Amino acid sequence: MLTRPTHDVVVIGAGVVGAACAFYAARAGLTVAVVDRGPVAGGTTGAGEGNLLLSDKAPGPELALAQLSNRLWRELAEELPAAVEYEAKGGLVVASGPEGLAALDAFAAQQRGAGVVAEQVPADRLAEFEPHLAAGLAGGFHYPEDSQVQPALAAAHLLRAARRAGAVLHLGERVEALVTGPGGAVTGVRTPRRTLAAPAVVNAAGTWGGEVAALAGVELPVLPRRGFVLVTEPLPRVVRHKVYAADYVADVASGSAALQSSAVVEGTPSGPVLIGATRERVGFDRTLSVEAVRRLAAQAARLFPVLERVRVIRTYRGFRPYLPDHLPAIGADPRAPGLYHACGHEGAGIGLAPATGQLIAQQLTGTLGYDLAPFRPDRFTAH
Predict the structure, then answer these.
(1) How far is CA 242 from CA 51, 207, 255, 370, in A?
(2) Which of 11, 6, 5, 8 is closest to 212 using CA atoms?
(3) Which residue in 125, 185, 251, 346 is a FRET match for 331, CA 20 to 30 A apart?
(4) pTM of the complete model
(5) How confident is the prediction along the chain (383 residues), in pLDDT tens digits per residue?
């Protein structure tokens, strides 16, 4: 058993959140190891659309985190290769009738109070933003700060940059145990191949974050929330923004286990149109849901009738790491000294990854000036 640290920090998880933690920690001068039982972006990250959204978040801790992350993504876009496909394309949220438009108006007013740019678009101007959008909509709101990235490539390039700063990467190694010292403090991880000793271990295991927490004897109630995404054949740029209907915001905030679907439609630089998003809690069941796919296709075609004649060439699915209050767990766990959490971001992990990684690095280096209280990992068991 190793008694001297081999690294300053071990990050469990090579998805985009783990990659961001490794990137910012290595940039801060820490020696970093990243461990994942699979490949880079082999979990939720590889099944994501790459949404970097402010438009779907009400004022509060998650929106503030997203605003910080939004600024960091813009900085990263200047540094990472163009292959990450960062696009500051903006979002367009539309309403089919006056009631939905009034709800969007009230929501946008709250967001503006928190510093979000939200511009009302009357019905007769929607075509200026999206020429192929369905006729007869009541209007919408344009969110110029919404953007997109290719998540798997973003994770890969963040890890590549972290490795240039000295981080090491161990893929295909499942963490079997957390090494603990006196008083239960976490002092490293053990895989079938090696023991990595470190005074800090970051749980960025996404949907499996609860299992990693349990290795330290603490509870973190992360649950999987399944979602499907449709990918069309390559097309000319028929969809310019991220476009979704008003009910998407309610679906994101819902805690229901039942199937919910509200189409988010967006073009990509490579041509295919991505259509998400469904949500349902069915454990880790990867079975293709014909009903979920059918609903998404129908909703997308209602928003963009031109898609009715387009082929869907593949469907992929993933599991969002869901916590009961829809906020991630970020920061030191007071129940297990040495253990830090960076998981439970649900469907916003790609958007929130840079802020999460930066804040974890700042906490590790004693430079944190941000209030992490809303994201306390022990908030579900504290009395």
Answers:
(1) 8, 25, 24, 30
(2) 11
(3) 251
(4) 0.94
(5) 444 688 999 999 999 999 999 999 999 999 999 999 999 999 999 988 899 999 999 999 999 999 999 999 999 999 999 999 999 999 999 999 999 999 999 999 999 999 999 999 999 999 999 999 999 999 999 999 999 999 999 999 999 999 999 999 999 999 999 999 888 899 999 999 999 999 999 999 999 999 999 999 999 999 999 999 999 999 999 999 999 988 766 555 555 666 777 889 999 888 999 998 788 888 888 888 888 899 999 999 999 999 999 999 999 889 999 999 999 999 999 999 999 999 999 999 999 999 999 999 999 999 999 999 999 999 998 54
